Amino acid sequence: MQVSDVPPTTVPGWRRTFAEGELTLGLSPVTPDGDLERQVGLVQAAEDAGFAAVWCRDIPLNVETFGDVGQIHDPFMYLTWLAAHTEKIALGTAAVVLPLAHPLLLAKRSAGLDRLSDGRFLMGVASGDRPEEFAAFDLDKGDRGEVFREHLEVLKKGWTSQMRPVRWSRGRMGGAEVVPKPSASGVPLLTVGSCLQTTEFNAAHSDGWLTYHRNLPAQKVTVEKWRASCEEQGQGFKPVGESLWIDLAEDPAYPAEGRDFGFRIGREALLELLATQKELGLNHVMISLRHGDRPVEDSLAELAEYVVPEFPALG
């Protein structure tokens, strides 16, 4: 099957979400239950409002000590379902636990989702952090940084190799190839968190970076370090985004009140925060509403009317 020479940063999902000097908004994950009808309705509302992307997580097991199962469903099945019920919104993972996944199967699934969604898939990958999952998958948690690097290399070869041998520590492929191939030269790839790698490695081997929420001065330093690493690697502009948990207060003037990974906040303070984040160089903010006191539908409707129009999807 023919391999494209078009850069992955030209596909529709990427162009809708990322551009230098711009900040867009994403939604992640929409509800903590398995009600697909409700989840689809929320994502469709987010698409209509102008959210650039919806993000889901890769949580193979319900781990008792974490108590968090994301959207419950496997991310590739879930996003394929969303692709069939939406038209424009980018569909992202934040993130696939790369050391736990067979890299060739991951190459096939990601390329397939890219094709089925008409180029809307954005693939975030991470090294993982739940000890119980590594034990269940017979992988030493301490090896995950090394395995991440190797699986990333094999994943990319799976997208591009045409009947050429691919070898790695846990297997080899010869006289065969992964199909389908992505619509571009690869699937848009973002590292999420540090992935137990250096900033320089992530800048050189990904199309962009998604990190965690920090206070503004700390995030400014983080963004500047990322930009410097991209420049040192001769990579040019590569976007950086963050995740942000918000409990949207009903009072529009409610001041920002710090919470874990985010804020209880009114929409006026949220608009100010996002404007400042744009100024310091963030290109995307993944908003999670699942920890708020209000119904997700109410908070989403308020964001759609007052906040998203100030930071709309691109293209």
TrEMBL record:
The keyword DNA-binding does not apply. Coiled coil: none annotated. This is TIGR03571 family LLM class oxidoreductase. InterPro entries: Diverse_substr_monoxygenases (IPR051260), Luciferase-like_dom (IPR011251), Luciferase-like_sf (IPR036661), Luciferase-type_oxidoreductase (IPR020020). It comes from the Bacteria. GO terms for molecular function: monooxygenase activity; oxidoreductase activity, acting on paired donors, with incorporation or reduction of molecular oxygen. Keywords: Flavoprotein, FMN, Monooxygenase, Oxidoreductase. The lineage of its organism: Bacteria, Bacillati, Actinomycetota, Actinomycetes, Mycobacteriales. It is an enzyme of class 1 (oxidoreductase). Residues 33-236 form the Luciferase-like domain. Its EC number is 1.-.-.-.
